[in-house]
Amino acid sequence: MNGWNRIFVVIAVVWTLVAPFLLVTENNRPAERMFSSCSDLAYQLYGSSSSRQLDMDRYRAEEAKCSEAFVRNIVSVPETFGAMLGAGDWRLGGLAWGFILIPLALLWIIGWGGGRVVHWIVAGFRR
Questions:
Q1: Do the Cβ atoms of 15 and 103 come closer than 8 Å?
Q2: What's the total number of domains in the chain?
């Protein structure tokens, strides 16, 4: 195995270990934004000293609703790994595998094609 192949193997291993965490982070971003806006709205309506209806019980109830929606919509790392192994949501597993394999395949194809083009150009100057 030459040096370029070894570099690709190292990149592939690192990407395979890091990609599920990046996928979970990106997948949970809309749920986190929704929780933040819901929580802020509940605070502005019922929990702030400048709100029209200062009612801490109602604020806590609204905050609990926001938390329940957040927990229902969030994707965890163990859930993602389970889906990748076939236990759980098959769409999440397919998305995770695609998120891992498609960039690696593109990197391999582009790297190989670029190497062949450079080799072809250099061979033209050797004559």
A1: yes
A2: 1
Dihedral sign for Cα atoms in the order 75, 77, 81, 82: negative
Checking 105-112 for CB contacts under 8 A at 24+ apart, the result is 107/8, 107/11, 108/8, 111/4, 111/8
Look up the domain containing 107 and give its range. Answer: 3-126
| pLDDT band with cut points at 50, 70 and 90 for residue 30 | confident
What type of residue is 25?
T
* Of the candidate ranges 15-24, 44-53, 56-65, the one whose mean pLDDT is the lowest: 44-53
Cβ contact 126:34 at 8 Å: no
Paired tokens of 103: 């960039």
Angle at 46 between CA 41 and CA 34, to 5 degrees: 20
